[in-house]
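Justification of computing resources. Each target in the renewal requires a structure prediction run like the one illustrated here; the chain below, 198 residues long, is used simply to show the kind of job we budget for.
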Amino acid sequence: MTGGGWPAVALGFPAVQMRIALLIIGVAVAASACGGDDDSSTLNIYTSVTQDTVDVVVEAFEASNPGVEVEVFRAPTGELAARLAAEQREGGIRADILWMTDPLSVQQYDAEGLLLAWQPDGLDAVPEESRSDTFWGTRVLSMVVVHGADVPAPVSWADLAGQAYTGGLAVPDPGFAGSALGALGFFALDDDYGFDFY
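Resulting structure tokens:
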């Protein structure tokens, strides 16, 4: 992606690091343990996935499942987490499906026992290391660096700690965006960087 003098630079990662940081970021989650309403003709999805992607998937699902209406609540990860926490306090999560962009939140929901086991048809197409009984990866999201024309293109993440970027570096808030939380997880878990580097 380029534009306006801001080229995107994709930094290379070994395959194992990619799996930890990226592969699980796109996650569809099985039906929540407390969720759903009593109307079986309505499917409630809570998601942080981009609207264009959601629209295409919902349209295809509804076309293949006449009589089923999909209701979507879409928000950034932080807002979704707040809604889920509020619903838990009020008696139970009302989503049938969580379709998140952040593996760390999903793993926490799973650890809390909020997700049901679900093995839909076609799950074998997802690599074994990217799925569990309750959630699975749906796509790979790339972490990229975008730089201005007046600074050198970084070759590694470590370059971003150099003088050329002092005072001019911004990273997204991991409390707001799941993809930013995934990036935080990558740095925190990588032996070459760690949380102090982040």
